[in-house]
Write a structure and sequence with these properties.
Blueprint lengths: L2 H26 L25 H29 L11 H25 L1
Helix pairs in contact: 1-2, 1-3, 2-3
């Protein structure tokens, strides 16, 4: 799978996660939480880590986060070019883009299956 296909796959997974979370919030009236680890959670104490300069850790984290957001922004822009968006009154949010992309892929898959059945 090439890089753009992999990125699109990750974005589609994110859209599905957001939809599941929205359904859970609608059903229960509150946000869903991650599943509890149960007794598998290790209570063993690890060796204390040497103290690092918190300022340098924060700087590295901020830089990594900046690169991650830039990569995500590039992937979303590429997805916008590949997915036909409607020009109706709905705002073109990231969630709407991901939902349209998922539907677009489903339609294309169904159409390709139909074409294959004809031959």
């Amino acid at each position: 799978m090439d890089n753009s296909a992999c990125n699109i796959h990750v974005l589609l997974q994110a859209a599905e996660y957001l939809e599941r979370r929205e359904r859970a919030e609608a059903e229960h009236g509150y946000a869903s939480v991650l599943p509890f680890q149960g007794r598998n959670f290790s209570h063993k104490r690890s060796k204390p880590k040497p103290k690092k300069n918190p300022e340098s850790i924060r700087t590295v984290h901020n830089e990594l986060e900046k690169h991650r957001r830039a990569q995500l922004r590039r992937c979303l822009e590429q997805l916008k070019k590949q997915v036909p968006l409607t020009s109706d009154s709905m705002r073109n949010t990231t969630l709407n883009l991901l939902q349209h992309a998922r539907l677009h892929i489903k339609v294309r898959n169904v159409n390709s299956i139909d074409v294959n059945l004809l031959y």
